[in-house]
Amino acid sequence: MRSWFALAGVDVEAPAESSKLKITIHVGADTADFDRDVEIHPAHYRTGKLIVAPKFVEPGPEELKVITADAELKAKVFGTSASEPLWHGDFRAPVRAAPTDSFGTRRMFNGKLASIHKGMDLRAPKGTVVRASNSGLVVLARPLYYEGNCVVIDHGLGLYTLSMHFSRIDVHEGQRVVVGDRLGLSGATGRVTGPHLHWAVRWGSAYLDPGKLLRLKLNAVR
Ligand SMILES: [Zn+2]
What we know:
Layout lengths: L17 E10 L2 E10 L7 E4 L10 H19 L26 E4 L3 E4 L3 E3 L6 E3 L4 E9 L3 E7 L4 E8 L1 E2 L6 E2 L4 E4 L11 E7 L2 E3 L1 H6 L7
Parallel strand pairs: 3-4
Antiparallel strand pairs: 1-2, 4-5, 6-14, 7-13, 8-9, 8-12, 9-10, 10-14, 11-13, 14-15
This protein binds zinc ion (ZN).
The site of zinc ion has 4 residues, from loops.
């Protein structure tokens, strides 16, 4: 018997309701469609308050230009993923540091700006080696306004991992990486309250819980 497997996820802001999972299978010239109802249950996220430099809450005109350019670059990067999976096997934690349950936290910056935390913060002191969590292609490796020194890996079919706030980047755009490859050193660049690694998982336009991806046993389904 032949079998296939696929990874799918639900965005952190998806409403808690019944949703339809649509699957199309292509085999040669044939296609088959089927769908299944998936119940999305409410998650219970914390709320928190943070104080950051004012320029990250009320950016001036020059800063807004940088933010707009960053947004255009990110739209391009996230709009062109490899057409086949570049990853295989388990995803590994990017640093040896304690994870926090910060994913999904509703946060208020400087008492003014409400935002949802779409990644996982890991308590990495400045200079901690950050590694590729799986194989893929480095599609962004440069400083951005909010993200600081940022590295994005395309794992194919719209699945990306993002690492932010590096003190140093050790890879370049266009570079192939495998699990465990050194991406750079953690730091405190961009919109932060202190040194840590912000690590996010994006699929299509959805941000997924990195903790859940790390717990999946994918070696068994190769
Ligand atoms: Zn974060």
